[in-house]
Amino acid sequence: MAVLENIEPKEVFHFFEEISRIPRGSYNTKGISDYCVRFANERKLEVYQDEWNNVIIKKPGTRGYENSEPIIIQGHLDMVCEKTEHSDHDFLRDPLELMVEDGYVTAKDTTLGADNGIAIAMALAVLDSETLEHPPVEALFTVDEEVSMDGAANVDLSRLQGKMLLNLDSEEDDTLTAGCAGGFRFSCEIPVQKTTAKGSGLLVEICGLKGGHSGVEINRQRGNANKLAGRMLYRLGREQEIFLAEISGGTRENVIASVSKSSIVVQEPEKAIRMIEAMKDEWRQEFGADEPELDIRITELGEKEYTVFTGESMKKVVGFLVNCPNGVDEYSRSLKGLVETSDNLGIVGNGEEGVRFLVLVRSGISTKLQELQDRLICLTDLLGGNWNIDSGYPAWTYRESSRIRPIAADAFEEVFGVRPEITTIHAGLECGLLSGKKPELDCISFGPNMRDVHSFNERLEIASAEKIWNVLKIILKRCK
User: Using one digit for the tens of pLDDT, what is the confidence trace for 308-344?
Assistant: First the structure.
């Protein structure tokens, strides 16, 4: 028996469970893309699949809507793959283990993939239905949104006739999103020289942090394990001679780093351990209830000779960790409470000749993106590193005049009983890239309540999904 078989709306959760059986992490989208093609072929729908694994499926309008303007339903096929440290889940092979708990759908020890699997499931349910009233539908399924937006950047939009686009990649059901931040990925490498040092080895693991989406949840000021590692190493180095042998942290640039591991060599291990424990107490006071599981685990590796960074190399690596901007940089001056500019030091790890850092920068203002870019370049140059900028995407600018927005707002009011908040968000959405490629696109983004996306605590509210499904049906019915 399917786990979600009796969950309403059944037609949506049927497809959500089906796609949850298909591994579909970013850059591993061939399987889910082929599934969508088979789905279309089985129903004799027009389908197009490109070399990137983007898929477009077209369905004619129902009776009375045959000559209506097509409407685009859009979402991305890939998901963020995060799991608990004790999980043996293989995201390349294993299906997600879905569960229903307290009104939410979740997955055992892993991300759920509701971001953005719920969009795909709803679009498939529309394409599959023989009873819904709707204009011609063009379902656009893109890939690799979570890491690069390469799918949206490379899809051929000339194959689409619609000029109104429903993006189902939002995570709060009381809002209609009408704009988003732009951003880019900054990668750099600080070269290191190696030497040897005798002393006591310690493996220090900063863990237990909540992590989360570096756009949606950056305003929550959650702990970044990479930044905390920098603070710890700098403080230890001020008090005694230490050597850094290895450092790593984080898993993705768009995920707030929840774990960092540092292998260090010290001459006074007891003093070092006391200092680390004291810092843990300090951080717990700083974060309070926001990070209740924050922990530092220390493993003693024994006394011997270790291969370590030279003192100068360690100083540069720690210098980057300490001085790299991270978190909220500025709030909007026009929309109070909205994050305008931020960055996330998402990954620290081994490079070809040193330590590599990945930072995701976001802003709704192009000049602020430039300012953070300059700061990161300046810091890297001062430390003798090399850098690269890629995966840039434009901001989605709010349109003063929109045809689809009032239709969507009316549908929300009918379902929820109140008008939705119309806002812009700090996270990046594909609407920016898509409307940049096709300026006439009139886009709106909405979706059901999801919590802790991009983390293994990700969950989807069932009642909210049903309401958003009803909103979608009403919008389609009214686009005649």
Answer: 999 999 999 999 999 999 999 998 887 677 888 999 9
Mean pLDDT score across all residues of the chain: 95
Rounded to 5°, angle at Cα 132 from 130 and 134: 115
Average pLDDT over residues 147-170: 94
Tokens of 406: 């009032």
DSSP-assigned letter for residue 457: T
Residue in the structure block whose two tokens are 């399917």:
2
**Identified catalytic residue from 17, 18, 78, 169:** 78
CB 265 within 8 A of CB 308: yes
Question: Residue 47 in contact with residue 41, Cβ under 8 Å?
Answer: yes
User: What is the C-alpha separation between 231 and 236, in angstroms, rounded?
Assistant: 9
* 76 vs 464: CA distance, rounded Å: 20
pLDDT score at 426: 85
User: What is the spatial distance between Cα 16 and Cα 35, in angstroms, rounded to a whole number?
Assistant: 13
- Strand order through the sheet with 137-142: 46-49, 55-59, 137-142, 71-76, 164-167, 442-445, 175-180, 421-425
Active site residue 171: no
Question: Where would I find the beta strands (DSSP E) of 193-338?
Answer: 194-207, 242-249, 260-266, 295-309, 327-331
Q: Residue 200 forms beta bridges with which residues?
A: 266, 303
Both tokens of residue 198? 């005798």
Whole-structure pTM value: 0.76
Catalytic residue among 82, 144, 145, 217: 145
Rounded alpha-carbon distances, angstroms, from residue 416 to 119, 400, 409: 20, 24, 10
Query: What is the identity of the amino acid at 131?
Result: T
The dihedrals phi and psi of 110, each to the nearest 5 degrees, come to -140, 170
Catalytic residue flag (residue 329): no
Most distant CA pair in the chain, distance: 81
What is residue 267's predicted lDDT score, i.e. its pLDDT? 94
Structure tokens at 41: 């072929």
Residue 212: the pLDDT is 87
pLDDT tens track for 64-84: 999 999 999 999 999 999 999
Amino acid in the structure at residue 72 = I
